[in-house]
Amino acid sequence: MANILGIGNLVLDIILNVADYPKEDSEVRAQTRHFAFGGNTANTLYVLSQLGHQGAIVTTLATDDQAKQLTQALKAKNIGTDHVQRFIKGSTPTSYVLVSQSNASRTITHYRDLPELDFDHFAKIEIENYDWLHFEGRNLTQLPGMLNIAKTFLQHQPISLEIEKPREGIEALFGQANVLFFSHHYAKAKGFDDGENLLKAMRSIAPNSHLICTWGTDGAWCVSASGEWHHEPAQLVKRPVDTLGAGDTFNAGVIHHLINGLTLKQAVHEASILAARKCQQVGLDNLLQPLATRKPIANIKHINSAKATVVPAPGLKHKVVLIKHEGEVKAYENNCPHQDVPLDEAYKIDVNPFEMTMKCSVHDAYFRIEDGVCVEGPCWRDELKAVPIEIDTETGAIYLA
Description:
Layout: E1 3-7, E2 11-18, E3 32-38, H1 40-50, E4 54-58, E5 60-61, H2 65-76, E6 79-80, E7 85-86, E8 94-100, E9 106-111, H3 119-123, E10 132-136, H4 143-153, E11 159-163, E12 179-182, H5 184-189, H6 195-203, E13 210-214, E14 220-223, E15 229-232, H7 246-259, H8 264-279, E16 298-299, E17 309-311, E18 320-325, E19 328-333, E20 350-352, E21 357-359, E22 366-368, E23 374-376, E24 389-391, E25 397-400
Parallel strand pairs: 1-4, 1-10, 2-8, 4-6, 5-7, 10-11, 11-12, 12-13
Antiparallel strand pairs: 2-3, 8-9, 13-14, 14-15, 16-25, 17-18, 18-19, 20-21, 21-22, 22-23, 24-25
Helix pairs in contact: 1-7, 7-8
């Protein structure tokens, strides 16, 4: 087990799952919403924690309720918060993340009015007590001094630097790190069309460092400090579920395997497998557990618009109501928001094909089939909870997403 210090951003992620990415000037309904801590460094430290390492984060936080929420979440994931710098002025940085269920892409809108980490705060940390330092390539007014301290006072501990976006002057820092992670966004912004050509250019800037560039479905390129080149093809993922945090997972995998003595080529290979594993699940929890074998909850040939079909849903608290609406299968938890009872508690769910509603059998609440909103009855304007599903176009099998 290594003791790893991560220096970077920490945000509150508000994640909305939508069927497809919305068009401009349109309105869509999210299928699910959840909150989580985010930021590249925080995510990488969480994955490293699952891989058996101890981690601590150096970042800034506000003093609002969201900051307390993030602190508690980090501690629950075994990430130390002793080096967090607090600011009274400003609020907790927030990222609003849209995840498209159709292709697992994610679009992020970030808001920040909180000051960045300052050099004096970092300088007080006893960095010699850590086995590895991982920096985000941001905060360019303070980062050069932090890297200079790390390079000066650390004798054998590796330093890694993640370069996600082009920032003025960042290239001057590349020689300070032992491992450099480049994104394809940075490469494209610099005019390169693949990772190999980027790394060839970067070799002249950081000839004694491990260099890695990831390129999504095109895989990853790397060159070791000794000059060994390798291209790692992307792992085949039949249907990605959630790509949010895949790059952070990859970085954690590389760091983990380098700590354990693997070559850069081997570390990149293992990290690619771990990143692909992450893309097949929502979130970062339980990355080392086998993926659950999914079983269909129904088949589309048994679902129609005249009848609501109620089926068991393993892993969910309630059964699921399935019904067709304008050729699309709608799925809702079988739970009336009025008194938390199944819609079919007294008798079957009545469907009105003219009003396009479903009626709760207990207190006659009517819900629109289109979006689950109650349009008449004791829980007016409340809504049924939508359940994300996936349909196999070849077999018609319906799965929980």
